[in-house]
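subagent[fold] <- orchestrator: predict structure for attached chain, return tokens only, no commentary.
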Amino acid sequence: MSGLAVITGASRGIGRAVADQLARDGYDIAVGYFARADAALEVVEAVVAERGVRAAAYQVDVRSPESCHRLVVDARAAMGPVRAIVSNATGFGADHPGLGASLSVPVAVYQEMFAARLGALLSLVDAAGGDLDGGGRVVAVTSTGTHRHVPGYAPIAASMAAVESVVRYLAAELGPRGITVNTAVGGVIDTDALAEITADPERLKEAVRRATPLGRVGRTDDIAAVVSFLCSTSAGWVTGQSLIADGGNSLR
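subagent[fold] -> orchestrator:
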């Protein structure tokens, strides 16, 4: 595949791995970031130097439809039509007050998570418009926290579950235009974002290792590989699906 891929939350973690993999696949890359401009520029420099594609970094607040729209418009103006969208950013920054028991979290936090997850997906796809027609790819990144209880995770899980539902609607509605829409669902992935949902990431990772048939915690490239497939010509007959990559952890 070729053309422009717009990726949110691409300055670190899963988003960074996705940017590198899609660049390897031949996509030009729009690196969406919120606060880590230096890290975003590192991603740009790496994919340009190592993968030989075009790339640029764009600051975006995924909680804002206007900001998401501007990301797509600016990236299109610089690098051409958008052929893939990967909605990955959490909208949950390091300065966030944190999560807790479901009823202890203010409703405003739930609303913020829905804006960052569901609102961003809808805004990005809407802004891309006809660019995606005839083979465009849309992938949302969620987690298996949508299917099980993870202490303190309710606002994120609820917003991701809403994304998984709307992905099916978008797939049905955009399919006649030749656009596929899918979800890449990850288990626990070893990134620094784990510190945002647990006070003891190492304890969590050890528990995941014991409960996972394949015997390890997920890596960012595990999810990048799923996104790569869903953004490829090989996935042209796959749409409206939630593809789980968790080493079998959800089987237990």
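orchestrator: received. Logging for downstream: The chain has a mean pLDDT of 93. The radius of gyration is 17 Å.
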